[in-house]
User: Fold this.
Amino acid sequence: MDLYKALALAGGTSTAVGGGILVSRSSLFQGTTNPVTTQKKETFRDRYIAAILAKEDELWNSKFGILKGTAEPAHPTLKNAKERSKTNENEAKDLHKQGCSEIYDSELESSPHFKDFQTYCAKTMKDGIAQGETWSEQAHTESVPWNTKLTNLHSHNEGQKGVLSDSLKKVKEQISTGSESIPNWNESKRKALKDWCDETKVKVFLGEEEAQFKNAKLYCVGN
Assistant:
């Protein structure tokens, strides 16, 4: 085979110099594998930055109370923290924060630890309301505050008060059917809104400007 062709097939370059051949060593021996650019995977901290607890956040105490209760965490460090809480609470609290930190910086996609994050490590919708405000916890059998909130939801104008989440739109549609007169709502209508608020309060807090949180401030929170 012609030497020039052989060099070409080998991936080298050649230059004729004084009747001889100068081979580019770098091109002849360069690797054939292109470097692969690894894209950083999204973490819990990346997606849920508004829900991450600061080191000295007072919410750690209430989250720790949940952890050492009847809950059953899956993350190994949180499991260790729960077990240690029986003998050394201060050490258990440190392990609790350590476990949450490990979850914060772990890959979000297909993670088996979302429930642990939501329950023991994250600020929830209820946690996100301002000091001095209270989440409405009254039973749906109580007319106060649910009747007033239902009346306001029934007349909700998205142009003035913001877009409703899909789930709250369904509640609005549900309460808009029937023959009872406003504002004398029956228990089933009050229960529909109460259930929505109960489901929403434990969801991960995404920030004060997030649509569902704004909805909750209107229809689940009282001063």
Notes: The two ends are 89 Å apart (CA to CA). The chain is about 45% helix and 5% strand. Residues 3-33 have pLDDT under 50 and may be disordered. The longest strand covers residues 14-17.
